[in-house]
């Protein structure tokens, strides 16, 4: 299974904000959209990603103000990305090795989607269920 297949099932909605907004503004959007991370895109270029973990570790634990701190001050700018053609095993390995939960999907330098660790796990489970069902059908014949 590929990243493209996941996005066809879940949709290609991408929520993003500008890097010059406050962390508070970013959290409001994340809350409204019920998402755990948001992409930072300036002039159609992916600049970073901001997650709830970033907020907890870089604002709350450091006693900073989310209304005064700008997104670019705490966002993760070293963003790992995948392509539509990448397979799930590679995504899972990358997420595990880099200890990340979200992967933007980029084609021709444009963000076309985002997948989370739960998207990957769900897809792998579905693939395994299908394999088990096929094997059971084969054995029953």
Automatic annotation (TrEMBL):
This is CBS domain-containing protein. It comes from Flavobacterium chungbukense. Gene3D superfamilies: CBS-domain (3.10.580.10). Residues 10-66, 75-131 form the CBS domain. SMART domains: CBS. It holds the Pfam family CBS. The lineage of its organism: Bacteria, Pseudomonadati, Bacteroidota, Flavobacteriia, Flavobacteriales. InterPro entries: CBS_dom, CBS_dom_sf, CBSX3_CBS_dom, Diverse_CBS-Domain. Keywords: CBS domain.
